[in-house]
Design brief:
By secondary structure, this protein is of the alpha/beta class. The protein folds into two domains: about 120 residues, Alpha-Beta Complex (Aspartate Aminotransferase, domain 1); about 240 residues, Type I PLP-dependent aspartate aminotransferase-like (Major domain) (Aspartate Aminotransferase, domain 2, 3-Layer(aba) Sandwich), CATH 3.40.640.10. It contains twelve helices and 17 strands. It has a four-stranded mixed β-sheet. Strands 6-5-7-10 form a four-stranded parallel β-sheet, sandwiched between helices. A four-stranded antiparallel β-sheet has the order 13-14-17-16, with helices on one face. Strand 1 and strand 2 form a beta hairpin. It is globular, with a radius of gyration of 21 Å. The structure holds pyridoxal-5'-phosphate. Pyridoxal-5'-phosphate binds next to helix 4.
């Protein structure tokens, strides 16, 4: 036993080294990484450009403080403004902090307009983080249980249902924002319809609500465009980002534009570590590498290869409910809990994850090649096939 607090039921594997989409454990076993540290290692492991940037920046300057100008932070914000189409950026260190900033921004926006008890519309099965405010916004009893009282002010609706949102718009004058993931990650790779995103944008426009698109997991090139909202041709007001932003160096960002720009003033929000030179150098190199080596195009191409192969190998199996996703954010929903597939995949040299009990989740690095993509399916398909042949589906209620 170590002295670690018992917050994770960890798998008994420790990786020692990585290169590209490959990992090696302490015993020298080699694994194909289809998870990328939960959508974090955008450029794979030990990418030469990122290694060079981080080592050079560490030797020059790691941290100063936001009490001073940080030129690398200014450059990073220019880059994020350019790719998001928004105006200004607050830097922090994680996804929950990016969402905390978004929630605070929405509340302050409300107060500035005379709404003293602002409400934010959130979705069922949403995941926004583990801090008290973000777990309150999260749509999972498992995440919330035991941490009551929750932060008030969140109104929950189901995804892809615009009528309920219109109904709330007609009767709740305290609403100041909608906060949602264009593709829910932890919730099971649930994709918002593009018409739904456009409809939300329209309601937000009419009611002067802020549209907060939490792209912490789905954003930053994974779906073949920089952001999922760009597939719908819309622009949110606030975009919280983290995970893949700096290739594994912890960085979060809350990007704001339109009526969400200019809401925060000095003293309203802050972060000691946020946007330090080391983090910003890693962010700039990660985003520039994505652009210079066309990783958006690669994500789309390799995503299609994996998806087509999954449909071919598994699509007709009884027990496979749906194969869905965009680009390199893919889910295979089974008709039964399948958490044990994670251990079996490890034994077969494949790193993946199961979310929402029944959804096998693939989130590989954006640098994965087509051949490596096919190899993911070659390793995964037999595992799923034999798993499904073993037993009858367990009814979901009985599994808990
Ligand atoms: C992972 C995730 C978060 C939380 O990010 P942390 O860095 O773990 O705080 C928030 N929103 C979404 C959509 C996520 O996938």
């Amino acid at each position: 036993m170590s002295h670690l607090m018992n917050t994770y039921a960890r798998l008994p594997v420790a990786f020692e080294r990585g290169e590209g989409v490959w990992l090696w454990d302490e015993a020298g076993n080699k694994y194909l990484d289809a998870l990328a540290g939960i959508a974090v290692n955008t450029l794979g492991h030990a990418h030469p450009a990122l290694v060079k940037t981080i080592s050079e920046q560490a030797a020059r300057l790691i941290h100063t403080s936001n009490l001073f100008r940080i030129p690398l932070q200014e450059r990073a914000s220019d880059l994020l403004a350019e790719i998001t189409g928004l105006d200004e950026v607050f830097f922090c260190n994680s996804g929950c902090e990016a969402n905390e900033a978004a929630i605070k921004l929405a509340r302050l926006y409300g107060h500035q307009r005379g709404v003293t008890e602002p409400h934010i519309i959130v979705l069922e099965d949403a995941f926004h983080g583990r801090t008290i405010a973000t777990l309150s916004a999260t749509g999972s009893r498992k995440v919330q249980a035991g941490f009551e009282p929750l932060v008030p002010g969140f109104v929950r609706v189901s995804m892809n249902d615009l009528d309920t949102v219109r109904g709330i718009a007609d009767r709740d004058s305290n609403v100041v924002a909608v906060m949602m993931e264009p593709i829910q990650g932890e919730g099971g790779i649930n994709i918002a319809r593009l018409e739904y995103l456009r409809g939300l944008r329209e309601i937000c426009e009419r009611k002067e609500w802020l549209f907060i698109a939490d792209e912490v997991q789905c954003g930053l090139g994974r779906t073949g465009k920089w952001f999922v909202y760009q597939h719908a041709g819309i622009k949110p007001d606030v975009v919280p980002l983290a995970k893949g932003l700096a290739g594994g160096v912890p960085v979060g960002a809350c990007v704001a534009g339109g009526r969400a720009a200019g809401v925060f003033k000095p003293g309203n929000h802050g972060s000691t570590f946020g946007g330090n030179p080391l983090a910003m150098a890693a962010l700039i190199t990660t985003l520039e590498t994505i652009r210079q080596t066309d990783l958006l195009g690669n994500a789309e191409r390799v995503g299609r290869v994996i998806r087509d192969a999954l449909v071919r190998e598994l699509g007709d199996l009884p027990g496979v409910r749906e194969i869905r996703g965009m680009g390199l954010m893919l889910g295979i929903e089974l008709d039964r809990p399948c958490g044990e597939l994670v251990t079996r995949a490890l034994a077969a040299g494949l790193v993946l994850n199961v979310t929402h009990d029944t959804v096998i989740r693939l989130l590989p690095a954006l640098i994965m090649s087509e051949a490596e993509g096919r190899e993911v399916v070659a390793r995964l398909a037999p595992l799923v096939r034999s798993f499904l042949q073993e037993g009858k589906p367990v009814p979901k209620a009985a599994a808990h």
